[in-house]
Amino acid sequence: MKRLFGVIGDPISHSMSPMMHNDAFKNLKIDGYYQPFRITPEDLATAIKGMKVIGIEGFNVTIPHKTSILPLVDRLDPLAKAIGAVNTVVRDGNDYVGYNSDGLGFICSLQERWKKDFKNEKTLIIGAGGAAKAIYYSLASVGVKKIDISNRTTARAQGLVDHCPFKCETNILDFPQARQNLGAYTLVIQTTSIGMSPNINEIPFSLENMLPNTHAVDIIYNPLETKFLTEARQKGATTQNGIGMFVHQGAIAFEKWTGIKPDIIRMENIVMQHLGG
Ligand code: NAP
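^ thats the input. predicted complex w/ NAP below
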């Protein structure tokens, strides 16, 4: 009998995860299948019970269920608990265990593309939403001691920092302050939805003060190069888009489900082909 996996969200038809995981099953000769499930918020609890009864071994969780699923799993990994969001569920015996692989996926992609010891860099995260929280908490959990945050709503950034269980020194900046002080950072991570298709001409703030020794990451992957990345490249910075984070969070989930590391380059090629890159 096929081993069953999937992703739950609403909407879900745009998800690139099924093509990425189904190709990995085929490539690794695993008799598995990964199915997208459109689940509305009202049906979430019933759907999770149903998935367990059917015998689904693991699934990803995307918008809008990443937080509302917390009380519906049997156990939570400590990092997912701290972040307050789950993007991967793994069956362990009769239990569903919730994990968050977004931040660790980001770290793996950063290590892959930028060969520096990121723990000692001067880091700025732009944004304080769910993705920023996963990245900030994951960086803090692996020992990064100082990360500044800039967000439109500075109170949200403060809340994110206040609830972080890992020690990390942080200054909170509004956008004009971040723009002014940009030259102080060697790693700048853009995590807001500003610049995402179709609003491709938007940028959080001008990068006129960015220095050429900066590594600039935008976790958006549609478009492949946001206005933020274009400006950073023009300032001489090295740049990286959100494909690596997406692929690595998927690869971490795949390994948790099967015990096998998938071929990252193959996964990335599939996503790039789909996005026309
Ligand atoms: P979220 O929780 O809704 O947070 C949105 C963030 O964007 C907040 O910081 C928000 O600021 C800011 N923002 C949105 N519109 C703004 C505007 N007009 N002006 C200023 N700030 C604005 O979303 P999320 O889940 O963190 O996702 C954020 C982005 O990351 C999305 O583009 C998503 O596709 C991408 N993402 C990529 C990956 C990947 O694997 N590559 C994974 C997850 C997410 P306020 O707090 O002021 O509202």
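The first helix runs from residue 17 to 27.
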